[in-house]
Specification:
The chain is an all-beta fold and about 280 residues long. It has one domain. It is about 0% helix and about 50% strand. It contains no helices and 19 strands. Strands 1, 2, 3, 4, 5, 6, 7, 8 and 9 form a nine-stranded antiparallel β-sheet that branches. A four-stranded antiparallel β-sheet has the order 12-17-14-15, with no helix packed on it. A four-stranded antiparallel β-sheet has the order 16-13-18-19, with no helix packed on it. Strand 7 and strand 8 form a beta hairpin. The N terminus is likely disordered.
């Protein structure tokens, strides 16, 4: 499947990501991931009068007193290195740059060369660098949708990414690694997961409503380095609010969720950050 997309948020919003089917091919060994962007999207249709495309913009800032280096390693949904087109640069599976003290570096993925494509990025940093990804969705006949996701630091106590199997939750017997909020009342929620290791892992998702009732469970297998994303479209979570409790098996992974308004809420889009304790 090579990183080619299906729809994260359903028909209302053609996000460049895959569904659950992951290609069963040998994955390259992944060096230790100290930080990551859980989701990237680029490509689509850009013909005049028929635009339906996504791109991802990146902004990294060096808050330190000396120069810092950043190296991004791009991976597709199948865990293989992904050759990504960067505006003004050569298509490549990595992107490197140096940021001056108190400086900021911005770049954007080209949305004119590929079908809608999704994946994730491992980010290697030296120095005091922080950053974010900004997602742009262009569709003929409506304003541009924009949302963002922060750089995730593995294992840091910032509530954005943790190792699998840590936080006990009384409503579900198994311990959870993190919780992703969802809100399917006047909205559609999409979730994204990336396996940032060279070892296959399986996530168990328990969908719990606001009163603590488990609505459904789902198993998500992730090959080494693999990424998957999908809308929460099952009828059992339709019209419901709550959290997705993610049970890891002990291996690190990266996750994020997105929310897009429908009906009277149409035209709104937001990022939902993982919750940890």
């Amino acid at each position: 499947m090579n990183g080619r997309n299906r729809n994260l948020l359903g028909g209302a919003m053609a996000v460049a990501v895959m569904g659950l089917g992951l290609a069963q091919i040998a994955s390259a060994q992944i060096a230790t991931v100290t930080a990551s962007i859980p989701y990237i999207a680029f490509g689509g249709t850009t013909a005049p009068g028929n635009v339906n495309a996504w791109t991802t913009e990146f902004a990294f800032t060096n808050l330190g007193s000396s120069a810092a280096s950043v190296n991004l390693r791009w991976y597709g949904d199948n865990g293989q290195p992904l050759a990504v087109p960067v505006v003004g640069a050569t298509r490549a599976t990595t992107q490197q740059f140096v940021i001056a003290p108190n400086g900021t570096f911005n770049f954007t993925l080209d949305n004119t060369q590929d079908p809608l494509t999704g994946g994730w990025a491992a980010v290697d940093i030296s120095g005091s660098v922080t950053g974010q990804a900004i997602f742009h969705s262009a569709l003929t006949g409506r304003p541009e949708y924009i949302t963002s996701a922060p750089l995730v630091h593995n294992g840091a106590p910032n509530g954005l990414i943790v190792l699998g199997g840590g936080v006990p939750v009384t409503t579900v017997a198994a311990p959870v690694s993190l919780a992703l909020p969802f809100n399917n009342v006047g909205n559609v929620t999409g979730v994204s997961f990336a396996n940032i290791t060279s070892v296959a892992q399986t996530l168990v998702l328990n969908y719990v409503d606001n009163s603590g009732v488990v609505l459904m469970s789902q198993t998500v297998p992730l090959a080494p380095g693999a990424h998957t994303a999908f809308p929460l479209s099952d009828s059992r979570v339709a019209g419901k609010k709550g959290v997705v409790l993610v049970n890891g098996d002990g291996s690190p992974y990266s996750a994020i969720a997105f929310l897009q308004g429908t009906g009277a809420n149409a035209g709104t889009v937001a990022t939902l950050l993982p919750l940890t304790q």
